[in-house]
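Below is a filled-in request sheet from our internal design queue. Each sheet records the structural input a requester submitted and the sequence that came back. We keep these sheets so that new team members can see what a complete request looks like end to end.

REQUESTER: design group, bay 2
PRIORITY: normal
MODE: inverse folding
CHAIN LENGTH: 708
BACKBONE (tokenized):
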């Protein structure tokens, strides 16, 4: 009796120690996390908000509102950009509150399991960390699958959202699911459940699940993280890619592994070691049989999103669209995918060491005129609707454009507008060169024509022109160099990293075709004016050892940008008057969200001028807004009607706007030169106006010649 009592007592002391240690670890982890949130909250409320002139107010329930407090003498007029920034700040604060609430709930639940509610028994759940407790809860919810209530799915998403970039949590979670096949089964069932009906709330929750699980998978499979999933997960996913995944017992039609996996891959920045073998395998399977994954796609019903709950660029039946979107979010992987020599893969996803892929690059493969893109939609009778069919056929080219953007810029294609500019590596610059050569030599691939009176076929890849416009904006220094064949060692027109060495005639034809897209036109025009302003500023305010007169250097500085503006003016006129693919309103609207290119080009300028004011310092914000205002005016005035076109091929109000833009750049730069007198100031303005007018006409003629 005494021995049993002593044994039980020893066990209780051991359990008590374990419970105390668990409680300490849970509280310590929670304290550390909450301190980080508190610090971020203080910065947002006490630093960022006052700097913006905004006040944040708690309105209860974890929600906040923002407002601009009235100050005597203030007109209370705010720009949309100021309002958007205030809302973004409020959203950030609300997110911090939600994260703190999620931690509090997790700790409360874990402490309850640790204690167990029994005052006479210490032997209950023990955890080594808060992550450990959260993973346990996450797997409990995952075991419910589609039986999760909306509240439970919201809880699942909350845990995943705030831990999606935590290697400990994500690795343990995916291992806990039971491996690649169980991962596909869980996600497949959840995505079908969330997209198969008319429940908008459930769909929104499923879309969040797709985003967070995708980001978490990218974290868990990154070999640079500790811990991470073993490489065997990638090999197993490739093996499962061509195999049916049974989501419902006895189902007549099961999806292939790659169809399900594709939904997850669309979100997250994946390491090339994991993503590229999958992307190569999928592309080669598509090359061998473009329809193999489409034959089991559900058809003849209302459109549902299937394995891509986001609904962006396809329903998720075609894994090719999915892996291209994955590359669009994974810059390092995308760069290697398009610049490394292709590796041949067998049917089961293993490497075929005895054979080559049969093509030299994926850029060449995707830009073949006869490359087959699929219509990835579940919509009933889609083929009977020409407009919907055309839109669906553009999903693949759009995804390709996103992948090329990431590969050439070093950023996810939809990265935050405030993301820093990234130096161009030799590989990225060479890929940009190849892209310009490809489409400059074969502009028919991206031509768009809706005018039945003009006998020109629409090219298969015209939908990616907006992405080509972003690539052009990113490499603005390279394009300006090539307008008048500037030497590659030019210091007046610097590149941002390795130069792309563009060929003049090919680059001009490329711009002439790409500029017909309203979004591309706006990106190029915005970047062009920002870059030209930076070059003019450097000429007027930078160090100079040249014996050329200042007005001569200003003339040289504005010429390439004005020539590009001429190409853009003619491209816009062609789209509106010749091909009937856009309107002036389309071009004007496209400029509204292009501020990012002003900021990025200025960021590149800071690097090139060692942070010299006015391209850096306290006036950066003003300079950026002033340039964007100038851009908006240029775009809204750059119009040509039929009568003007008939009167003169190179006539356009764009010429007047190019002249005004060049003069604005001079005036902006001269604000830092009070030593320059009025006569010199006027002479520099005149030099800029003259060069801009001549070069704009040059560019318009080049564009017109390239279209004949």
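RETURNED SEQUENCE:
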């Amino acid at each position: 009796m005494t021995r049993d009592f002593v044994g039980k007592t020893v066990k209780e002391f051991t359990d008590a120690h374990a419970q105390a240690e668990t409680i300490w670890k849970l509280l310590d982890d929670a304290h550390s996390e909450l301190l980080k949130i508190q610090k971020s909250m203080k910065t947002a409320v006490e630093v960022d908000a006052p700097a913006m002139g905004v006040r944040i107010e708690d309105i209860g329930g974890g929600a906040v509102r923002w407002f601009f407090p009235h100050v005597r003498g203030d007109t209370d007029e705010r720009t949309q950009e100021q309002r958007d920034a205030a809302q973004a700040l409020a959203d950030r604060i609300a997110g911090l509150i939600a994260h703190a609430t999620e931690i509090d709930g997790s700790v409360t639940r874990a402490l309850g399991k640790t204690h167990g509610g029994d005052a006479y028994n210490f032997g209950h759940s023990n955890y080594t960390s808060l992550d450990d407790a959260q993973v346990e809860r996450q797997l409990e919810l995952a075991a419910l699958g589609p039986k999760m209530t909306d509240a439970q799915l919201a809880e699942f998403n909350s845990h995943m959202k705030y831990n999606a970039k935590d290697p400990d949590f994500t690795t343990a979670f995916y291992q806990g699911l039971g491996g690649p096949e169980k991962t596909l089964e869980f996600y497949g069932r959840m995505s079908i459940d969330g997209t198969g009906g008319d429940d908008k709330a459930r769909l929104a929750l499923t879309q969040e699940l797709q985003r967070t699980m995708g980001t978490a998978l990218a974290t868990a499979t990154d070999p640079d993280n500790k811990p991470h999933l073993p490489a065997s997960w990638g090999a197993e996913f490739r093996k499962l890619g061509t195999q049916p995944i049974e989501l419902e017992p006895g189902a007549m039609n099961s999806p292939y592994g790659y169809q399900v996996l594709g939904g997850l891959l669309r979100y997250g920045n994946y390491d090339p070691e994991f993503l590229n073998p999958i992307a190569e395998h999928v592309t080669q399977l598509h090359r061998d049989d473009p329809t193999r994954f489409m034959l089991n796609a559900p058809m003849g019903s209302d459109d549902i999103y299937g394995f891509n709950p986001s609904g962006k660029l396809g329903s998720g039946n075609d894994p090719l669209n999915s892996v291209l979107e994955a590359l669009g979010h994974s810059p390092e992987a995308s760069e290697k995918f398009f610049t490394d020599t292709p590796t041949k893969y067998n049917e089961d996803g293993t490497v075929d060491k005895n054979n080559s892929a049969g093509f030299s690059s994926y850029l060449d493969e995707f830009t073949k005129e006869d490359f087959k893109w699929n219509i990835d939609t579940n919509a009933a009778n889609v083929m009977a609707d020409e407009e919907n069919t055309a839109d669906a056929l553009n999903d693949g080219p759009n995804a390709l454009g996103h992948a090329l953007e990431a590969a050439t810029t070093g950023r996810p294609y939809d990265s935050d507008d405030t993301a820093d500019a990234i130096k161009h590596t030799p590989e990225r610059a060479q890929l940009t060169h190849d892209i310009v050569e490809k489409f400059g030599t074969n502009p028919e691939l991206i031509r768009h024509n809706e005018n039945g009176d003009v006998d020109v076929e629409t090219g298969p890849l015209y939908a990616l022109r907006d992405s080509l416009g972003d690539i052009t904006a990113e490499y603005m220094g390279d394009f300006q160099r090539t307008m008048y064949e500037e030497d590659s060692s030019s210091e007046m027109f610097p590149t941002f990293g390795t130069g792309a060495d563009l060929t003049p005639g090919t680059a001009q034809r490329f711009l002439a075709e790409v500029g017909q897209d309203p979004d591309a036109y706006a990106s190029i025009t915005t970047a062009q004016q920002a870059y030209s302003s930076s070059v003019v500023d450097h000429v007027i305010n930078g160090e100079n050892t040249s014996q050329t007169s200042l007005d001569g250097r200003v003339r040289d500085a504005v010429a390439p940008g004005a020539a590009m503006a001429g190409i853009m003016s003619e491209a816009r006129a062609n789209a509106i008057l010749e091909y009937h693919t856009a309107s002036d309103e389309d071009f004007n609207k496209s400029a509204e969200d292009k501020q990012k290119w002003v900021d990025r080009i200025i960021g590149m300028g800071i690097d090139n001028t060692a942070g010299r004011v006015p391209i850096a310092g306290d006036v950066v914000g003003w300079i950026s807004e002033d340039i964007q205002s100038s851009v908006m005016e240029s775009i809204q005035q750059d119009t040509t009607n039929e009568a003007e076109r008939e009167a003169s091929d190179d006539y356009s109000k764009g010429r007047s706007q190019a002249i005004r833009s060049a003069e604005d750049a001079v005036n902006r730069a001269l604000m830092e030169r009070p030593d320059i007198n009025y006569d010199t100031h006027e002479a520099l303005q005149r030099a800029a106006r003259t060069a801009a007018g001549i070069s704009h006409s040059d560019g318009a003629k080049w564009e017109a010649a390239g279209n004949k």
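SHEET NOTES:
- Residues 2-52 form the longest helix (51 residues).
- Confidence is low (pLDDT under 50) at residues 8-14, 120-124, 606-619.
FILED BY: M.R.
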